[in-house]
Design brief:
- By secondary structure, the chain is an all-alpha fold.
- Helix content is 76%, strand content 0%.
- The chain contains 14 helices and no strands.
- It starts with a helix and ends with a helix.
């Protein structure tokens, strides 16, 4: 990708975010329900309700509300949460790192597990084990992340209580974190007690999110490896006496990564959206869990801020994946 194409993608990203903001802004105001009614006491007078609506700008025309909101966004002012009475940007900044740690842990697990299964499937092709692996992988593809979450809660949370059921850190630990990135900070401080506890709380939500991703990666990478294994350069390397494992890992894998990486980026964006339900099931204090509370409380500023952050993450991830795929293209590497 040239510098011009990157600039064009960024310009389109701004327009896309503007469109997302407009759609969400309008939809939240045309659906039934009044956010003021959710937060005011039953004994409030009409004057109290009118004053509160004026405080949040809900008494203005819809177009004026949108342009005022857009003006504030340009100054990085996402507004004030109606239900929590705090700045939206501050709330998102506190919760987003937890979601990022969870999704990147699930991404690493999905890539490793899916890659191992794909390579094993190619090495075991035309054997009974290949059919078994394909059947199991198909089952993993068919089960969504929230079903895995519920199954894990029952299996290793209730029947065999191996891992913590909820939260992000054991309340009994008295560690004072300076950043919301608990895992990274614990590793940087070599506090292995906190590292182990944070990882223990990450295991079940990571598996719930990562298992479907691993199944997608395994199927896609296996097909790409199968196509690469019949290419002339692989046949030539086989004639030279190279082992089958070395053929797969050294010759075929680097050419099969491209299409798999692109699909992984798309699935990763879907996985970030999937954190909403998974975080709720495990009471994980991330941005997805907060999004559900915001919807229940009709917290318009908070919902708008969360949707914009999700949209920005999707766009940034897609651009990053395109850049990486372009750099890993064999024609670019050997050009």
């Amino acid at each position: 990708m040239t510098l011009t194409s990157v600039f064009n993608r960024l310009a389109m990203a701004v327009l896309t975010l503007l469109g997302v903001g407009l759609v969400v802004f309008v939809l939240l105001r045309v659906v039934p329900g009044d956010p003021v009614a959710m937060m005011i006491s039953p004994s409030a007078t009409p004057a109290d309700i009118a004053a509160l609506r004026a405080h949040y700008g809900l008494d203005l025309p819809l177009a004026e509300q949108f342009f005022l909101w857009l003006r504030d966004l340009l100054h990085l002012d996402f507004g004030t949460s109606i239900s929590l009475r705090r700045g939206v940007l501050q709330l998102i900044g506190e919760r987003l790192p937890a979601t990022l740690e969870l999704t990147f842990a699930a991404l690493v697990f999905g890539i490793l597990a899916g890659g191992i299964v794909a390579v094993a499937g190619v090495l075991l092709r035309r054997t009974p084990l290949e059919a078994v692996m394909d059947f199991v992988n198909g089952l993993f593809l068919a089960v969504p992340d929230f079903v895995w979450a519920l199954a894990l809660v029952l299996l290793v949370g209730v029947l065999w209580p191996i891992f913590p059921l909820s939260g992000r850190l054991d309340p009994a630990l008295s560690t004072d974190f300076y950043t919301p990135f608990y895992l990274l900070e614990s590793l940087a401080r070599f506090n292995w007690t906190d590292v182990g506890d944070v990882l223990a709380h990450l295991v079940m939500p990571t598996l719930a999110l990562g298992l479907p991703l691993a199944a997608v990666i395994a199927r896609t990478l296996k097909e790409a490896l199968g196509e690469a294994m019949v290419q002339d350069y692989v046949l030539l390397a086989r004639l030279k006496g190279m082992s089958e494992t070395r053929l797969v890992l050294q010759e075929a894998l680097r050419n099969a990564v491209g299409p798999t990486l692109t699909l992984t980026g798309v699935q990763f964006t879907f996985m970030i959206g999937g954190t909403v339900i998974v975080e709720r099931i495990f009471a994980y204090p991330g941005i997805g869990n907060m999004a559900i509370d915001a919807v229940i409380n009709r917290d318009l500023p908070l919902i708008q801020g969360i949707v914009l952050v999700f949209g920005a993450l999707f766009i940034v991830i897609n651009i990053a994946v395109d850049l990486i795929a372009d750099r890993l293209n064999p024609r670019q590497l050997h050009g």
